[in-house]
Amino acid sequence: MDDFDDLVARIAARARALGPLPDVVTALRLGRAERVLGFSLPPLLAALYTSVADGGFGPGTETEIPGYDVAVLHPLDRMVSLYQENRRPPPGAPFLPWPEGVLPMLSWGCFAEAGVDCTSQDGTVLLYESDVEEVAPDEAWKVDAPSLAAWWQRWLDGTKTAPTEIWHR
Q: How many angstroms separate the CA atoms of 11 and 5, rounded?
C-alpha cells in the first residue's frame, strides 16, 4: 500500500464534492511529461494526476472567480509548458530563471505562484512572488510547506498559514 493512498482518497473525495473534474492522466502521459521535464514528479503529485484529475482542484476551488482558474492545480501539460517557459526568460527580463526542478503547480493570482521542488525528498512547496523579486530577489521564494503532503493536508483541514522562511537552494 502506498503511503499516500489515504491522503489521495481524501483529496479526491473533497475535490469531487466541489464539482466536476477533468479526466485523470494516464501513466503513459505522465511518463512522457517527466521525460520532457528531465525529472520525476514527487510520488504524491503523480498520484493526484493519475488518480484524482488532470488539475482543476485545490485551495482556490471554494473561491472560484468565473473564467479565472486561480489557486487550482494546473493541468499537467500546462505545468510542463510553464516550467519550460519560466526556465527560459526572455532576453532582458528583470527576473532570474525559474529554479531547476521547481514545477509551477498553481497560480494564486496577481504576482504569486505555488511551486513544488521536485528535487527535494518530500516535495517542498514554495511560494514565488514576482513582485517581491523586482525589489528583493533574495526574498521572492519562500517555503509554503515542508512537503506536498503537509500542503494538501492544510487544504483538507481548511487552515491557512503565511510562509515566512526564505527558500534558498
A: 10
Query: Please, are residues 62 and 71 in contact by the beta-carbon 8 Å criterion?
Result: no
Dump pLDDT digits (tens) for 85-127. 988 877 777 666 788 999 999 887 677 889 999 999 899 999 8
The residues pairing with 130 across neighbouring beta strands, listed in sequence order, are none
Domain with 108, as residue range(s), is: 5-157
d(CA 129, CA 108): 10
The verdict on residue 92 lying in a domain is yes
- Please tell me the total count of domains within the chain: 1
Q: Which helix (H) or strand (E) holds 7?
A: helix 5-17
pTM exceeding the 0.90 threshold for the entire prediction: no
Q: How many angstroms separate the most distant Cα atoms in the chain?
A: 49
164: in domain: no
